[in-house]
Design goal:
This protein is α+β, with helices and mostly antiparallel strands and 146 residues long. It has a single domain (7-137), classed as PH-domain like (Roll), CATH 2.30.29.30. Helix content is 23%, strand content 34%. It contains 3 helices and 8 strands; from the N terminus they run βααβββββββα. α2 (28-40) packs parallel to α3. The radius of gyration is 15 Å and the shape is globular. The N and C termini lie far apart (41 Å).
Length: 146
């Protein structure tokens, strides 16, 4: 049986999503809450994501791609086949979050999530409304992060 494509998360919107939300007057907080509830019930969500290149890479710009968000893990896939996908599982990474800075070279509407495991660190930027969804998938309680 073919797996159904995950729905876009609240902050990963297209122009048609913005128009639909304007017409129906659906609040962003309601959409974020419904995304978290759906994920906790086993559904997947698709989140636009920019992955920070490692220090040994010559690339300065963050790599575009998306996260497949499910309960207990995030799976990143880049928009280029040259970039290896990776999976972050809940409980295996120390996680922190921060606002985007000018040095990040990524869109200001994003929030940066940093995951550290030993000497390995992964940083990625997601739209602000989707940051909580990603953190909940990694094992945080809603609104329990700084």
């Amino acid at each position: 049986m073919k797996q159904k494509k995950p729905r876009r998360a609240a902050g990963t919107r297209t122009a048609s999503d913005v128009l639909r939300d304007f017409v129906t007057l659906r609040r962003m907080s309601d959409k974020r809450r419904s995304d978290i509830e759906a994920m906790q019930q086993g559904e997947h969500r698709w989140v636009k994501c920019y992955f920070k290149p490692r220090d040994d890479e010559s690339r300065r710009q963050w790599k575009p791609g998306h996260l497949d968000v499910s309960a207990g893990e995030l799976r990143w896939e880049g928009s280029s086949r040259r970039w290896e996908p990776f999976t972050l599982r809940a409980g295996e990474w120390a996680t922190s979050t921060r606002n985007v800075t000018r040095q990040d070279h990524v869109y200001s509407y994003c929030r940066v999530i940093k995951c550290v495991q030993g000497s390995e660190a992964r940083e990625f930027a997601v739209p602000r409304p989707d940051a909580e969804l990603c953190l909940v998938a990694l094992g945080y309680e809603p609104h329990s992060y700084g």
